[in-house]
Amino acid sequence: MSGAIILVVLIILLVAGFLVYQNLRQSPLGERAAVLARAEGGSRGRAAPREPTVETLAPGDAIAFWDGQNAVVDCVLECEELVDGRRTRWRWTLLRGGRMLEVAPDGNVLYTGGEVVYQGAALFDQLTGPPAAGGILQTFEARVRAKTVGANPVTFDYGGRTFTIRSTGTFRATPIGPPPRAEVWRDIADDPSQNTYFEMDAEDGTQGLGIWTTHILLLVGEPLRASDIRGLYPAPPEYSDFRPG
């Protein structure tokens, strides 16, 4: 008889507990707790979507520019130059279609036009020849060493503009994603001394960049403002191997 009484008491307690649970779950506090629990469980199951910036672009990412044109990243080169113990780093982001975005400590530049100058061409000799023959790059370096380049700058006429050579140097480049396939880019050597760059400015603000590996790639562009980019979009899943960690 006492066992039956205990069983009845247990059933009453279970029913009462179930009714209290149901009332709590249907209350406003219970509903908010359920929403939070579902949200927390979902966030644990999937990572937050990646939000690229110009400094973290990776192959497959897309850029929407102010002029309505969109571009997909083909390759990113992480570059560095070591001069007198001082290391400078920057990024060259190669875009499908031939444009290139430079992200550097002194400002970002979008290069929209380019030309490969081949060895043996008159323009190649004009750029690389000795100072006695008017070679632009060696003349600039000689004036830098002599500390006369400020008073006697080296200029270069190209594309209807007169550019003033601003700097030259050598660089190391490490690709993110597949290595570049385009001429000059694909010939970047592991030895930094075999990779030369030179920068130049025109009076109207146009920027010029030269990349010299086997041949020379001449690029012309404009400084990039933050408002020039309307959107940055992460790569689809098939590019996951090339995303930054």
Describe this structure in words.
Strands 1, 2, 3, 4, 5, 6, 7, 8, 9, 10, 11 and 12 form a twelve-stranded antiparallel beta sheet that branches. Helix content is 25%, strand content 36%. The chain has two domains: 44 residues; 181 residues, no CATH class. Strand 1 and strand 2 form a beta hairpin. The protein has 245 residues and is of the alpha+beta class.
Number of domains: 2
Spans of 5+ residues with little confidence (pLDDT < 50)? Answer: 17-25, 27-37, 39-43
Helix percentage: 10-25%
Shape category: elongated
Number of strands: 12
In DSSP terms, counting alpha (H) and pi (I) runs of 4 or more, how many helices?
A: 4
Beta-strand share of residues: 35-45%
**N-end to C-end Cα span:** 69 Å
| Overall SS class | alpha+beta
Mean pLDDT: 85
Q: What is the radius of gyration?
A: 31 Å
Largest sheet: 12 strands, antiparallel
Q: What order do the SSEs take from the amino end to the carboxyl end, as H and E? A: HHEEEEEHHEEEEEEE
In short:
The protein has 245 residues and is of the alpha+beta class. The chain has helices at residues 2-26, 28-45, 122-128, 136-146, and strands spanning 62-65, 70-83, 86-95, 100-104, 107-117, 155-158, 161-170, 172-176, 196-202, 207-212, 216-223, 229-233.
